[in-house]
Structures
1.
Amino acid sequence: AARMAAPTREERTACWGARDEFWQCLDSHGDDASKCEKLRRVFESRCPQQWVKHFDKRRDFLKYKKKLETEGYIPPEAAGKS
Amino acid sequence: GLAGAGWLYLRREKERRRRQRRLRDLRALALGQGDFQLQDTSGTPRSRADLLGRWVLLYFGFTHCPDVCPEELEKLCRAVELLEAVPGLPPVQPLFITVDPARDDAAALGRYLRDFHPRLQGLTGTAEQVRAAAGAFRVYVSAGPPDPDGDYVVDHSVLTFLLGPDGLVRDCYGRSRTAEELAKSVRGHMESY
């Protein structure tokens, strides 16, 4: 099978742009992905699948990090009790 | 006045001592002291000896990298540009070594690196040669599982190494350092070399 060439600079920039637009949409809709389906499709079409996975993980990480910074760390047992 | 000059002297002294401590720590790690055998983007064999006599800013990465490698390369090359603008400083050789030799052959590397700095060079090799080179710098490398297309990402340490003209690692910089900080640090090393 032919090896896929790495994305060129233009392709990288297009991918990152699509990702940023998708993320901006998520930001303005409280992370409701159902409100951003079109941008999600554009994002997936402009980026290699491996990059989509990588950026999805990154978004999750950034959200988790923000949560830690604003809410602080809640150990699992304490969160269960109320 | 005199107090200002005294304070400046103390600050420089503190910087110098911090740099000495760091150098000692890096030497103790024996970072990057092993030789390597790789090839540049024109297929010419290159070893450690080819780097002697120059300052080098070295980054390990791969061309299929989603964001980190282009960002770190931009930063590295920006630092080189900043240093080029300072009269009287020796030139810095920007260098990229792939951690993904299976896909990053000489041609692929050449295409990728063209977009950054005109003097940016790249090195690749066999899987064994690259493994040895990364190992010499204690750079962690781990290829992830391939997707149905055969595409994969390579998890790796994100570090930029500064090598002195004697070939030894004089400093290493992580993701959080800016291009300006890199340039300032390199300049400090050059001036105290």
2.
Amino acid sequence: MAQPPAKKTLSVYLYIPNIIGYFRIIINFIAFAECYTNRTLFAILYFFSFFCDGLDGWFARRFNQASTFGAVLDMVTDRVSTACLLALLSQFYSRPGLVFILLLGLDITSHWFQMYSSFLSGKTSHKDVKHTGNGLLKLYYGYRPFMAFCCVASEVLYIILFLYADAKSTSLLNTCRGILKESPLVVFMFISTLIGWALKQVINVIQMKTAADACVAYDSKRGK
Amino acid sequence: ASTFGAVLDMVTDRVSTACLLALLSQFYRPGLVFILLLGLDITSHWFQMYSSFLSGKTSHKDVKHTGNGLLKLYYGYRPFMAFCCVASEVLYIILFLYADAKSTSLLNTCRGILKESPLVVFMFISTLIGWALKQVINVIQMKTAADACVAYDSKRGK
């Protein structure tokens, strides 16, 4: 009996959203390579990569090319680019020195715990949090524009601080004062991103707690 | 033993290494070297943890069925894993301690370390070897973990 020829399937690594993912990584590499010499270019490339982040999700749905590898690649690219930007900011602003390093730690910790607890409850994306008691978390996960605002605001704030970093003054407070003396549009952007960033950090902390609780609950359900 | 404890453990390791690398990127030019290492550490461990989850394991250190020889040695012979991990951290601390406000060049600091006493030189070289092996393992781990994610999707019939 003749065997039908094996169906040739496209390797997951060649899915369009994943190729966009590789492209994002390359853009980030170039951005960080130029971050000291050309800050404007860095900001543009960083945001282009951020924009592609939304693009690859659209392509995944459009071409039915969603993949586990793609989801992890996406998440990891987000975490690493934010971590690297925060590491960069910690170089520019030495007073107070640890602020950005602390934010780096908070970002990784909250997302790691959240992803872990999502896994334990059988979800595939840390963005699929349905049963959560906390009002702010409910809003964050229930109303996507709010989540988008907080995430975008955080990144924009970091880029604003990056662009306004001055070799002469390494004080974060001085730079913020300087920004508040700029045009009304700049001040408006700064204040609104500050609000979004603050909300995101509060959500990060709440998320850590609920995710840690989920880990504990998982053990009791398993009868440990 | 608790799940929370295991995650707390893993996260503490990752964050403390990331913060140390961020610190080193402040002291040394090129700062990008340490930022790249930060990216590699997070990426490889995140992928590895994810793929461990998909295959139903609880610790990223429980890798049994792996084809790669170096990974087999790393996960099969715990003293080797311990050597690589400890060496990496010790190397970063050595670089941290020898960072000089006057010279921000990584190469100059390394040259300076190699002029120290034989004990220091020995420690530096051995940690350098362990660190290098760990980074190679990080890269291999990323690839095998990514493959596991792809395999998981095909098994699910996507």
3.
Amino acid sequence: MPDVNSLVNEFLIKLKKRKIEGSKATAKLTAELLRSFISQKRLPHTNQAGALIDAVKAVGEELINANPVELAVGNIVRRVLHIIREEDLSLTTAAVGGLSLSAESDNEDDVDQGDHPALSAAAVAAAARSTLRPPSLQTLLEDMPHSTAVPQTSSSGGDSEGKSKSADKNLMTRKLKHNVIEAVNELIQDISTCHELIAEQAVEHIHQNEVILTLGSSRTVTEFLCAAKEKKRSFRVFVAEGAPRYQGHALAKELAARGLQTTVITDSAVFAMISRVNMVIVGAHAVMANGGVIAPVGLNMVALAAQRHAVPFVVLAGVHKLCPLYPHNPEVLLNELKSPSELLDFGEFSDCLDFGCGSGSPLLHVVNPAFDYVPPNLVSLFITDTGGHNPSYMYRLLTDYYSPDDLVVRRRSTS
Amino acid sequence: MDARRVPRTVTDPKVRQVGFFAPVAPLDGSPSGPLRPTTPSPPVSGNSLSPVMIPLPRHLSSDNAPLSPLNAGGGDSFLPVGSYNPSEFSSPTATEDFSEDNFSKDTGWILNDNSGKIATSLTPGGADKAAVKQNTHSASGLTPGITDGGPPTEVQKEQAPVSSMPLKEKTTKAERRALQEAQRAAKASATAGGSKKSVAASAVVTSANANPKKVAKAPPQKKDSSSVAASEKRAGDRQTDKDRKKDVPHPRMQFDDEDRVEKAKKRSVVKQTEARNRVELFRHLPQYEHGTRLADLESKFFQLDPVHPAVYKVGLRFLSGDISGGNARCIAMLQAFQESIKDYSTRLEKTLIEKWDLPAKINGYVSFLIECRPLSISMGNAIRFLKTQIAELPLTMSESEAKASLLSDINRFINEKIILADKVIVRHAVTKIRDGDVLLTYGSSSVVEMIFLCAHELGKQFQVVIVDSRPKHEGKMLLRRLVGKGVSCTYTHINAISYIMHEVTRVFLGASSVLSNGTVYSRVGTASVAMVAHQFHVPVLVCCEAYKFHKRVQLDSICFNELGDPDAIARVSGKEDINYLDDWTSSENLQLLNLTYDATPSDYTSMIITEYGMIPPTSVPVIVQEYGGEHLWI
């Protein structure tokens, strides 16, 4: 499968060179890449799920390292891993629930591969069943009698094991792969339609004559505001231009074209204007597990100003932006310094840029960070495709999308 | 100020000391003595300065009383006209001997680097001695600097643009064409017989001369602010107050009041076209087209008799943005007034009682300046000072005496309230800079720059973070000057303030004004910087001369502000690919808002450094109360 490798390499280079930016684009491309990777991956007959997870982890690690700041890549890798695990489990449960024979055989593989060969196959099956099912009162109660019944099932199915094994294997492999790819397709679908789902909630949050402030530009925010406008809400938007990329200009133009009263302000005027603003609605780069936001630079200032004037600070984020990691020193570690040329013309300051005064260190530094970290206490509300959430709920929301085993995407060291 | 308050007596020069103070001799009034640290040591030792020293107002001035603008050779007391370089005044090594080459360097304070040359040529004898200036003045009624070699007397209209060309840094083709069109139109109307403009202009002159009642009322403050002044005012002046209030563009005129706007428009010298796509929230502020005004005003240069050429020139430079910054604008304005006072003469060479219409003239100038650019609060204070001085002249004084007295008053104001105040502020502030500090500043403040340079020359090891913002990018100029002096600098934009604030140990900010509720009224963005600094527990030090204090209070940045040119937002310098807003006026839903100032709440300010000492923002009303009338008294 050289084509997949070349695809991966190409994507890696693009990530490294920052040719692909923006969480949505990267998320989508990552998911598509992983889909083709999975579809071409040949799986061994035994323990396909484990092998697949390892393979995806290997690729995922490379992808994440290519641009560690682009958290969406890691998010998608983890979600794909989670999908694989889930599909594997659902297949297993189906097998356990339906055909005891196949379940038996399947579980035997697990035992072979696992570190505990001493455990009987039946015990593993029981354990698997109890973990797979949602924890209801019934399963808890059923648990005890089930384990006592184990020896009988295992003994009864013992003779027919050999015959059905190989046929089952092929079916299982194909089925797992097929299901995983289906699920990844769904994921891609989700990513591309997330802003529609978010925009649908616009009318619930924007009322008549509202004054909304936003900074920079985000597709999600644009759609959100336009959706409210289409629902006949009339409101006013202040757009801070968002130095150094000035995407606010484009946003303002689009909003004005859609018939919204739009006012462009400089970033420095945010504090002056925020006292007349009812709500701040912004996009995010990533949402961390503690509810903190990695956002385009400048938003921490806006959030502080909003807090000062008790203006709700609403962050729109698709689910692919939820990152299961907790940030540590995110201003530095999850940040990226861009080219100084966005702020200063090299030619203009060429005489000052030299190493000055014989001390060996340059006199002039230019700092141009790409992101800001907005701590969770400054965020009033997250609006995701699944609805509105508090920052304090983020850690819980994540468990729907990620499995705790994947938080650190690292190949298991082959000792 | 309470009108009934007994005016402060001038007899006892006692010094009141407030707050912590060391038993050291307080600031004495001599301008050069304490401000000439020949060794770097005195300012460093924090003990030598008491945090708050409030000398009695009269005290400072008494020593400097015999200052005259005419004795040009007066050493350090002489004020260079038009050129004021903060670094030379502030540096500890600078001596009191301000030699010629110091003066001839027209950088820093007033002028941007790139416009330096132009400005020098414009300044009326900018670097020259006052005597020279006087000569040129008496030669022609027109302005000396502008008509370099031009005919000094009546000039044809064709020559107007030529001589006024150096006012603009660059004249684009379109602008030139617009200018020509304007001239052609003016010519046509002139040849049509009874050119309206000239008629109107002369009408203004006659009316201004005949009765001073009809002339603009200038200062933004209430009239009754000085009790003594009021009592000594001529009876006629009293009557005028009502009239003025009625029909004059008050600096805080509410522009959503259509009647008044209409009236003001009829009077105005500058042709103001209302901007399209006005921002609804700011209808109470003037929103005019910016592009057309400069060219229009330039073309009218020789038709405007009521406005003195020096004032006219300063107005043009305000309009073009050539002079910016509170102190620079204030000094430029006062110097223009000096010129106009020198040229002023009553018809009959008698005592002041007859035909004394100087206040009316000044009012006219002020309203002209307001049309060019709204006055800053500091300028309002300076004008109030000048008017009080005029009002207090004894009626028996002869004209020449009165003029001399006024000129020296203005000189003293500039010297003490701005230049010396800055030096004292620098001395105070330098004690707050320690080795290893990372100092952040926003935009470009002249006094903050002086502080940095002074600390650098004292050998302190520190780094400067310059935070800048669109659209003016004033920080770039500051960056260039500081790096040129060898100060290690970091440059960033205002959005990155949260990122950089982690490393900062102190924030130094300048201010356009400090209001009496402690609100700092300054360049837009200052509030954001102060807020983030407050969040990160970094001390915020606001450096502001006390003449900029004002007793007004303000809670937000919207009720009173100044709107800049919206087109400046649409263009992003150096990025031609960002051109979404090129035709922004075509969409009526789209507005661009270019705010100039914002109000920083007082709880973000740790300390305000004034010449009276380092005070908390809660003490601002004290200063305003105690010294609010002082600049009327120096």
